[in-house]
Amino acid sequence: MRLSCEYELSLDELSECVADKNNTEKKLEDKEITASINKFLRDLPETQRNVFICRYWYMDSVSFIAKEFRFSESKVKSMLMRTRQKLKQRLTEEGLL
Q: Where are the alpha helices (DSSP H) in the chain?
């Protein structure tokens, strides 16, 4: 079951990686960030990529993802945290943060 509150929670988790700016440069930056995130996701191992996409594209809850992948919730949370840290590092290195 996909919950609307999960949408807000999952976006909050990503907020440290993707800054919200209200200016004309935002569109260009959004394209650059999108391209960088897409490349980042292609470079991830398949399971890690799928867990990340379930959480931040489909807005699935951690408990739903854990059941789907037969992982513990703590493993899913750790995997997501490490992936967000790697994404933040990549965006920082590319000057997008």
A: 4-14, 25-43, 46-56, 62-69, 73-93
pTM of the predicted model as reported, rounded to 2 decimal places: 0.74
18 in a domain, yes or no? Answer: no
Task: Determine, yes or no, domain membership for 79.
Answer: yes
Query: Does residue 53 form part of some domain?
Result: yes
pLDDT digits (tens, 9 = 90+) for 7-45: 566 777 877 776 655 555 677 778 889 999 999 999 999
Q: Which of 28, 14, 88, 85 shows the shortest CA–CA distance to 56?
A: 14
Q: For residue 97, give the nearest of 13, 29, 24, 9 by alpha carbon.
A: 29
- The residue length of the chain stands at 97
